[in-house]
Amino acid sequence: MEKTVVLYPGLAVSHFVPMMQLAARLLEHGYAVSVALIDPGVMEDIVFSAVVARVAASMPSVSFHTLPGVEDPPKLTLDIHFIPRYLDLLRRYNERLHDFLSSMHPHAVVVDSLSSEAVVVAKRLGIPCYNLFTCSASILAAFSQLPTLLPEGGASFGELADNPIDLFGLPPMPASHLLAEMLEDPESETYKATMGSVCWIMEANGTLVNTFESLEARGVAALRDPRCVPGRVLPPVYCVGPFVGAIAEAKERHECLVWLDGQPDRSVVFLCFGSIGAESHSKEQLREIAVGLNKSGHSFLWVVQAPADDSGKPLDPSADPDLHALLPDGFMERTSGCGLVVKLWAPQLDVLCHRAIGGRS
């Protein structure tokens, strides 16, 4: 009888796709895979919803189950309160996940690092639970140390500003380089929620990291060293990466790939900041990028999302950007011969592999 592994991905394309790549690996090793999903529509993100639908259609061997919705889900907004509200949403789904796992009796559960509080659900049921950490081992080593790094009554990370913080097994780094949520007042809801989420990652039976040991020997060694977090043994770390390649092939090639076909080898600059990075850009920053591209005279491919100027608007990375309103007057016309602006999303791996960017395809 096949052993079933339940996967519980986070509500972001950058977290969902690696989880599905893990699903493919598990299938190759003879496991049955079932995916528990929070309704993708709760994010009001048509790009994420489309990716989920496309992947589900392309992986018939994987069972996809959308958990029953919760009443009055918290409104997710593009401000400093996003993380606590996001975690509140996930917390409210814990009972739904509990009921689903109770009916499945799986061999193991793998939860995304964004959904780390779900570890408590698996523990309650006596099911081995693992975290999938989609970033690097070095970032995980840093995060593991942060909750206990500051002395009681000492300066906060925000107050340390550009002063370096010393992390075991890693180079020193300015405190100001931490996530914005970690620079908040330690008594704030945002800071507590962020650090609490990091602590939950440490409660799993193990952590699967999207890396490989020869790439990050220093970071992996730090995680396996008892001196990393004094007085605490971290969960075992398993390097399962790199996760690369498409999960679901598109029926048609993206327009930007067709455009790249007509460009000389190694001639195009690719600008793509990801959903979180792009949402942090203001209108003014977008215009500065446009001015720089125009003055450079260099060929470019630029993925643009609507800027997050209104901190009260719902989180909607799929909002259709009005390029003519966002970019300088005449920019689209002046650069039409050497540049292409793509709204919302582009197939990053395919673009990076293209000969016009510097790849081999």
From TrEMBL:
Pfam families assigned: UDPGT
UniProt KW Transferase keyword: yes
Keywords on record: Transferase
Gene3D superfamilies according to UniProt: Glycogen Phosphorylase B (3.40.50.2000)
Keyword Transferase applies: yes
UniProt superkingdom: Eukaryota
Recorded GO MF terms: glycosyltransferase activity; UDP-glucosyltransferase activity
Protein name: Uncharacterized protein
Originating organism: Triticum aestivum
Upper lineage: Eukaryota, Viridiplantae, Streptophyta, Embryophyta, Tracheophyta
